[in-house]
Amino acid sequence: MSRSLRVVLAVILAGIVAGVAGGLLSLLNHGIETLAMGHPYFRDPAGVAAVPTWRRLCVPVVGGLIAGLVWAWLRRRGQMVSVRQSVDVENPRRLSPGTVVDAVAQLVVVGSGTSLGRETAPRQITGYLGQAISERLRLGPEGRRTIIATASAAGLAAVYNVPLAGALYALELILKPDLRTVKGWLEVLAAAVVSGLATVTAWLFTDNAATYWLPHRSALHPTWHDGLTLLLVAVVCLAGGGLFGWCVTAARRRPVPDRAIWWTVPLGSAVVAVIALVVPQVPGNGQIMVQSVLQTPLLLTTLGLMAMAKLLGTAIALRTGATGGLLTPSLAVGACLGAMVAVATGNVTAGDVAVFAMTGAGCLLAVTQGAPLFALAFTLELVQAPADLITAACAAVWLTWAGHLVATRALARWRRRA
């Protein structure tokens, strides 16, 4: 078989395999949530409010202990390799079966109630499967890199039903293709095909539904007031994204020793569980909090408390050694900030607040990920956005990104002078 045919076969297989894996992982997530709290609580805007107190306190500790013991065992076996390390141009490394074990531990600790995202797990598992496909078909270094990157991002697309965002994740955050070359455009094509195939294949296990549900509302007709509100959302989320990034960096600055991680992770989960007694939307990846903001009219103080609690819970989970994603926690904090601005500027209907909340989510995600195209697509596909939300989010995200670039360059200039 020629190399071109092997590459085409690898792209098709990567998409189908990533879709099957993503669909099965969605079912696994559902099962972990039900086993942990008695029902799939990630879909409940009230979070764990209706769960008995003893269960809200004990289950996160048990989940944290299981994950902590797994991570302690994995670290004794050697350093874990990330997907990005496996596709490094100069020094690519192999993903090991421990990558899959690590991903399952992430799903357990997040599903049981700690405050981290679970989008890293499907990317690791599908990245590992992509590596197996590329090696089986003997694609060589460049083909291997492309298949691992696109399969990894397709896992995200399959779990969250976000095909465009999956392709953009592979392109904007992993491959970073040179669009002046034919090779660059072939990578774009591969990312689009793998992500699209994975998403459609995952519908066999789930359905083509939005992850978050927008309230019933009439279309937003732009006014000067709405434009000012969008500008304020962009500014607030630019500052909020900087704070979020600083907290994450500070939490990761001193890694937990390998010998201690088995008890620090459940300790962190216990602290998050205590925070959840006050703010029951904190547990999990942030889906609860976003859905609560979209569906329930909330006071300005409540929104502020939720944003601070999510940021604090995520920082604690990272500081105590837990591993997980940051996409959905970023969305949750951004949605709270966007809703705060909307309420503060006099928007009272749930539909209007929802537009500014999702706009804020996209703005903050663009800052924390350094990827405005991916952030915009991810946010809009999660709610299968209507036209007015697309327009508002595009304007605000690009305002935020422009501010981010200006602030970053100004800070770099100041540091050189200091």
TrEMBL record:
The keyword GTP-binding does not apply. It holds the Pfam family Voltage_CLC. SUPFAM superfamilies: Clc chloride channel. Keywords: Chloride, Chloride channel, Ion channel, Ion transport, Membrane, Transmembrane, Transmembrane helix, Transport. The keyword Membrane applies. It is found in: Membrane. GO terms for molecular function: chloride channel activity. InterPro entries: Cl-channel_core (IPR014743), ClC (IPR001807), ClC-type_chloride_channel (IPR050368). GO terms for cellular component: chloride channel complex. It is a multi-pass membrane protein. PANTHER family: CHLORIDE CHANNEL PROTEIN CLC-E. This is Chloride channel protein. It comes from Acidipropionibacterium acidipropionici.
